[in-house]
Amino acid sequence: MVKISELSDRSGLTIQTIKFYIREGLLPKGAATGATRAEYDERHLDRLRLVRALREVGDLPVAAIRRIVAAVDDDDVGMHRLFGITQYAIGPHVDPPDQDPGAPEDLAAQWRTARQDVDALICELGWRVTARAPARDLLAQTFVALRRLGFPVTLADLLPYTRAAAAVAEHEIGMVAADAPRTRAVHAMLVSTVLYEQVLTALHRLAQEDLSARRFGADDPGETN
Amino acid sequence: MVKISELSDRSGLTIQTIKFYIREGLLPKGAATGATRAEYDERHLDRLRLVRALREVGDLPVAAIRRIVAAVDDDDVGMHRLFGITQYAIGPHVDPPDQDPGAPEDLAAQWRTARQDVDALICELGWRVTARAPARDLLAQTFVALRRLGFPVTLADLLPYTRAAAAVAEHEIGMVAADAPRTRAVHAMLVSTVLYEQVLTALHRLAQEDLSARRFGADDPGETN
Fold it and tell me: In a designed cystine with A160, which of A18, A21, B171, B184 is the match (CB 3.0 to 4.6 A)?
């Protein structure tokens, strides 16, 4: 059991921020040890680290964080649903133009086609994903952009990407210990969604450069630049 | 050979925008057919599509686009270097805090360690990537963020991601026909760097949901939500 000042030191958050989180219902109160004093334990520290990560890495508003921590605390919410609540709260979120009455008709039509293609792809893959998963619209958005630039998108084009995504996700879900505390499991899920996505992006660019060097580099006087 | 009005129709860009691109040196002048008239061919259309994609998808400033199209037009610039010029121009770009005298010392030190780890990783993988590739800093940034949240990053943690990135990049480089026109090859490179990166992100989230459903869904009353 530690005082709020030590909780502040160990979490890297100011006492003001910790008190704000308690007022907002993001962190449970400590055990009262006097009229104005309370003590905190490891679970408070874990929770603070999760809240901090949701704020700083997930860039989530307080209301979204409150929903997530309420789900963490509710043992009736299973792990899969907990992951869904977390992932669906994380941006970027896309507003489909087919639901915007001011959008041009051709864009709305392209969007509807793209979204149908996404739904057909997920069905074809046999992936268990809810109809309201925000990543469906995220994917539909890229289909629209690719087609507007003259790149058709077919299932065959996507195969290397679906394989890579599935391999990485399999690794990530496998890393969640069956008996992991719920706070830590959600934390790991957030980190793999946001930060390992960036890892994958950076590695993708590095791999492109490597493979371009192998394929085209021999002819290229600028290769060693 | 077509007039500027048809070039506008086919590229989806206004005549004003096309004239602006010509003034800025992003598009070659048409063949003069009179004092104030000129005609354009398929190469102009291809170039316009590339410039539009660099602006809209790559979000690049005019000066960066000018460098890229100058490299496209210079046959002394090999394909590998052309890809490098394009990829290095595309953001996000990271400003390493170890080069910022105002950055806190501990952050600068964490950054230096992360960047050394990135360099060691690339060396270990045997990837041919220049020391100034911006994706090195992009990756270092995520290492710093992960470690600040208490997630150590080791080579073993990264293996599934490096494999996935290499598989996808191999597919992408393989899609570039050996005899593809340079304009189209750069266009394809841009699209795979920016838009297929988003495809991969969206598929990653969908795959996470699927694998979470398979692993945890059976226990979960909320699964079908």
Answer: B171
| pLDDT computed for residue A89 by the predictor | 92
Domains defined along chain A, listed by start: 4-89 (1.10.1660.10), 97-213 (no CATH)
By Cβ distance, the residue of B78, B158, B165 closest to A216 is B78
Contact A161 B127 (CB under 8 A): no
Chain A residues with beta carbon closer than 8 angstroms to that of B160: 167-168, 171
CB atoms closer than 10 angstroms to residue B108 = 17
pLDDT of residue A224: 47
The 3-state DSSP class for residue A76 equals coil
Among A49, A78, A169, the residue with its CB nearest the CB of B211 is A169
* Per-residue pLDDT, B224: 47
B39 beta partners = B31
How far are the Cα atoms of A205, A222, B71, B130 from residue B83, in angstroms, in the given order? 11, 11, 10, 13
